[in-house]
Design goal:
Number of helices of chain A: 9
Largest sheet of chain B: 5 strands, mixed
Strand order of the largest sheet of chain B: 1-5-4-3-2
Radius of gyration of chain A: 26 Å
Strand content of chain B: 25-35%
Largest interface: A-B, 22 and 19 residues
Number of strands of chain A: 3
Oligomer: heterodimer
Structural class of chain A: mainly alpha
Shape of chain B: globular
Number of helices of chain B: 4
Order of helices and strands of chain B: HEHHEEEEH
Structural class of chain B: alpha+beta
Chain lengths: 208, 134
């Protein structure tokens, strides 16, 4: 339908109102995060009278939107399959986030929304957010998960980073080790008191 | 160059609400809106402007259009800096000589440094502006 419109449409220059327009076409592709590239045919109109160039009737918007939809759908399937391979089940996601049952099955069937796609990307990037959701978004649980994840990153990646940077200073290495151990200790500590946390974060202005 | 807006910003934003029928976004502006703000289409850019996406707009200047068919020594473009969350942007627009369409000439990341990059200063300034209006 778009192809047909591209060849039959009469274009008018938005700047000088001339209909002396030349149209050219180019191929490009749209790739959503975790999605497959979807090709799209884009138009460029050039006014022969004033030289203005662009997409005068916003036809590219529809081509891009269609490509976005297809690529995002492939991303939805890839994200869900990746989550399932990490043993994060659709029913668990729906239960913790309070989504109606079979919501994700509908996404899988192609009935996904932009907000559903955004939510899936957040879950895929930070799967532990589901544990926070399970606690009714208790800020203390959130902070503890954040610390646990930070500790994992410190202990997994920092030694390699230090090696790759050729940092041999024993003081630096021992400081990093101390930070790692301390974060691990804090993350595994018993639940903190909400009032204490509120006061601490009020002092640092973090808006807790 | 003038330091008073040539156009009424509210009228431009109202036109953005009408979408691509009332406003044309230049190709270069679409490209920089995509790379700087993740806005992919003319429709997305105009919807962003029409739905309060244009935070803390600050008028910069009004200049005579230098290039193109409307560069007749009478057509001005108005430029604004703005925020979108922590992103600092630059927008310039004008109305065609025929007066039928608004043209978004630039929509990009603003590389100038703003004291408003500090959210606390931004909030303080906004409070001052609100009190002045009262």
């Amino acid at each position: 339908m778009i192809d047909n419109e591209l060849t039959t449409k009469k274009f008018v220059c938005p700047v000088c109102d001339s209909s002396n327009i030349e149209s050219s076409y180019s191929m490009s592709d749209y790739t959503a995060p975790m999605g497959v590239p979807v090709p799209m045919k884009l138009i460029t109109n050039t006014c022969r009278d004033c030289g203005e160039a662009g997409d005068f009737e916003a036809l590219n918007d529809r081509a891009i939107e269609e490509a976005q939809k297809k690529s995002r759908f492939s991303a939805v399937l890839n994200l869900l399959s990746d989550l399932e391979s990490k043993n994060i089940k659709m029913a668990y996601i729906e239960r913790t986030l309070g989504l109606p049952q079979r919501t994700i099955a509908r996404w899988k069937g192609g009935e996904y929304s932009a907000s559903g796609f955004a939510l899936l990307q957040i879950i895929h990037s930070f799967p532990w957010i589901l544990e926070v959701a399970k606690s009714n978004f208790d800020p203390v649980v959130g902070l503890q998960h954040l610390l646990t994840e930070s500790t994992k990153i410190f202990s997994q990646y920092l030694p390699n980073f230090v090696k790759s940077q050729g940092i041999n200073s024993p003081h630096f290495v021992s400081s990093i080790s101390l930070v790692t151990v301390t974060s691990g200790f804090v993350a595994s500590a018993p639940p903190l008191d909400h009032n204490d946390l509120s006061q601490t974060f009020a002092l640092t202005g973090s808006g807790y | 160059m003038s330091y008073k807006p040539f156009y009424d910003l509210e009228l431009f934003l109202e036109a953005c609400e009408q979408g691509v029928k009332a406003v044309f976004v230049r190709q270069k502006a679409i490209e920089t809106a995509k790379s700087g703000f993740g806005l992919e289409t003319q429709t997305e850019i105009l919807a962003f402007l029409a739905s309060d996406g244009f935070e803390y707009p600050t008028f910069k200047n009004s200049r005579l259009l230098e290039k193109g068919n409307d560069a007749d020594g009478e057509t001005y473009t108005d430029a604004y800096s703005f925020f979108s969350g922590s992103d600092y942007g630059y927008l310039s627009f004008y109305k065609t000589r025929a007066g039928k369409k608004w043209i978004v000439k630039s929509f990009k990341i603003n590389n100038e440094v703003s004291h408003l990059n500090n959210p606390a200063l931004r909030d303080a300034l906004m409070k001052q502006l609100v009190e002045k209006k009262k």
